């Protein structure tokens, strides 16, 4: 980013203390469109595993349980873990540069997935995809909050979030076509010995390198200017990044704890031991008599244990280093209940979106190209429609009710349930497609509302960190546990994915408690945000 473009961006933003403009500059919409493209590619690279799942299962001899771990936990833990330091970097460095570098990394790792020879190699590639993608949304959420005034924030974030559904749908269309065409042209394997599913990974990974260059041409907006709280530039942004990195990466976490004193080290060691003891117990209990599934179970709880322990280390370090940020995020019941509420939506939605295509392929014996057309296309339209309508309704309700946006989260949690039940119990193929469309549309309504609510609960300088925290919930709980649980139940019920996915509905009571609490807590938290931050030592107020 050149100095001239930084100055140009600053001249288009209101000065600190001034109200946000009534009109949004056309450039903001242009920048948003590029960010949407990034998110589309993000989810093409992430979601393409769905249409390829049955082929990978056959070639590598994997179980549904391991496929759930591969899509969910292997990706989610490192996505959440690296989202912490990358979120900190997005709060202090050039967000567009960070996003470009991350995009290049996850695109290369997606392409490399096509050259893997076993489940372990593919797992490592998925970890790399997770690390790269962890840079995208913390930077994007922060950028959008500075490109658009508060009155349009949920709408803008919903438009950005539509990339999730467009990308997810396109991944099925593109992946299905590539696999069928490639295998038809090269029945015994094509150039470099690649089979269809491997060629699909390479084909969707490489375009991201070109998009990364495009992202670098965008202008960086002034941080906080839209809210009249312009944040001062950070002199040494990477110092905070590396400090955060060593805070969340074992075994460096023990060094960080020791620096705070022997008492802090003792607590840290006790928490680590407790988490991994719990993982060992879960592996022993759930793996009893499972034979070939032991590896998937041990990997699941090992990865998840690392993630939970790292989050604990980060939280305790943040509390001592930046009390104001800790107070408004981890010390805020309103923030935490909002995150938990949406995480239960993600728990079910990720399971449906991942397992829907493999379920239909097994149940109805549908060719991949047809599957991609009837699930991918309508799925993209459903998600786009749901997230846009949800964001617009959330903004409209927020003008009338203090918890207007949170009510939309409740809607997105409850309303998809009948469609899910129909989708995974019907033996009628058209009914399955229709139910899939409505399940996707209704679940998507909650995302923009939840994202905008969390952004409203923190100060501008904290937004990327808040986004990283938001995605900790949606990934560790939603993505890390939902698809795995569905695969685990399926594997123990004769590979019945219908039973597996419907088992995820059991999370709803927890979600209802969380969302009802958020409805009560959010208005007061917004009203007292600055006072609580100032009391915690916030220097910018």
Summed up, what is this model?
The chain is an all-alpha fold and 541 residues long.
Give a description of the structure:
The structure is a single chain. The protein has about 550 residues and is mainly α. It has 25 helices and no strands. The longest helix has about 35 residues. It is globular.
Keywords, separated by commas or semicolons:
globular; 541 residues; mainly alpha; single chain
- Structural class designation: mainly alpha
Give the termini separation.
29 Å
Helices and strands, in order, run as: HHHHHHHHHHHHHHHHHHHHHHHHH
Q: What is the radius of gyration?
A: 22 Å
Oligomeric nature of the chains: single chain
Question: Regions with pLDDT < 50 over 5+ consecutive residues?
Answer: 1-19, 288-294
The general outline is globular
Which helices and strands occur, and which strands form pairs?
Elements lengths: L2 H9 L14 H22 L1 H12 L3 H8 L1 H18 L4 H19 L5 H15 L2 H12 L5 H33 L10 H10 L1 H9 L21 H12 L3 H8 L2 H25 L7 H28 L1 H6 L4 H32 L3 H33 L3 H11 L2 H7 L5 H28 L6 H29 L5 H6 L5 H20 L1 H7 L6
Helix pairs in contact: 2-6, 2-8, 2-9, 2-11, 3-9, 3-17, 4-5, 4-22, 5-7, 5-12, 5-15, 5-22, 6-7, 6-8, 6-10, 6-11, 8-9, 8-22, 9-10, 9-18, 9-21, 13-14, 14-15, 15-22, 17-18, 17-19, 17-21, 17-22, 17-24, 18-19, 18-21, 19-21, 19-24, 20-21
């Amino acid at each position: 980013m050149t100095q001239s473009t930084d100055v140009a961006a600053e001249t288009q933003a209101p000065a600190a203390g001034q109200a946000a403009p009534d009109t949004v500059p056309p450039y903001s919409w242009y920048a948003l469109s590029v960010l949407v493209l990034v998110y589309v590619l993000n989810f093409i690279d992430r979601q393409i595993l769905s249409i390829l799942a049955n082929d990978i299962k056959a070639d590598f001899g994997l179980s549904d349980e391991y496929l759930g771990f591969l899509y969910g936990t292997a990706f989610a833990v490192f996505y959440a873990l690296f989202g912490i330091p990358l979120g900190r970097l997005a709060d202090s460095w050039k967000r567009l540069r960070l996003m470009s570098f991350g995009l290049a990394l996850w695109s290369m790792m997606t392409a490399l997935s096509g050259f893997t020879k076993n489940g372990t190699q593919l797992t490592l590639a998925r970890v790399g995809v997770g690390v790269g993608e962890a840079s995208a949304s913390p930077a994007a959420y922060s950028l959008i909050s500075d490109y658009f005034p508060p009155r349009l924030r949920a709408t803008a974030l919903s438009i950005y979030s539509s990339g999730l559904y467009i990308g997810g749908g396109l991944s099925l269309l593109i992946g299905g076509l590539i696999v069928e065409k490639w295998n038809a042209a090269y029945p015994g394997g094509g150039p470099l010995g690649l089979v269809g599913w491997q060629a699909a990974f390479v084909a969707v990974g490489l375009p991201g390198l070109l998009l990364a260059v495009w992202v670098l041409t965008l202008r960086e907006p002034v941080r906080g200017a839209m809210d009249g709280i312009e944040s001062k530039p950070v002199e040494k942004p990477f110092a905070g990044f590396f400090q955060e990195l060593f805070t969340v990466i074992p075994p460096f976490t023990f060094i960080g704890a020791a620096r705070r004193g022997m008492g802090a080290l003792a607590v840290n060691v006790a928490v680590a031991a407790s988490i991994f003891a719990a993982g060992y117990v879960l592996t022993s209990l759930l793996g009893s008599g499972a034979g070939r599934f032991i590896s998937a179970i041990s990997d699941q709880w090992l990865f998840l244990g690392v993630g939970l322990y790292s989050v604990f280390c980060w939280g305790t370090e943040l509390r001592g280093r930046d009390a104001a940020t800790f107070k408004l995020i981890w010390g805020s019941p309103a923030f935490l209940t909002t995150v938990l509420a949406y995480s239960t939506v993600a728990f079910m939605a990720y399971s449906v979106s991942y397992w829907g295509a493999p379920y239909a392929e097994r149940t109805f014996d549908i060719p991949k190209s047809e599957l991609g057309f009837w699930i991918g296309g309508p799925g993209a339209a459903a998600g786009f429609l749901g997230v846009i309508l949800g964001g617009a309704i959330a903004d409209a309700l927020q003008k009338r009710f203090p918890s207007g946006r949170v009510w939309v989260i409740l809607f997105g949690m409850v309303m998809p349930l009948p469609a899910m039940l129909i989708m995974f119990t019907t033996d009628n193929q058209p009914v399955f497609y229709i139910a899939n469309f409505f399940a996707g549309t209704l679940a998507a309504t909650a995302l923009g509302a939840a994202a905008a609510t969390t952004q409203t609960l923190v100060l501008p300088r904290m937004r990327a960190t808040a986004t990283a925290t938001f995605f900790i919930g949606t990934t560790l709980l939603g993505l890390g546990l939902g698809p795995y649980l569905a695969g685990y139940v399926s594997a123990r019920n004769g590979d019945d994915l219908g039973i597996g996915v419907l088992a995820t509905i059991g999370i709803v009571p927890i979600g209802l408690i969380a969302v009802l609490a958020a409805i009560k807590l959010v208005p007061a938290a917004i009203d007292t945000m600055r006072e609580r931050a100032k009391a915690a030592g916030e220097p910018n107020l």
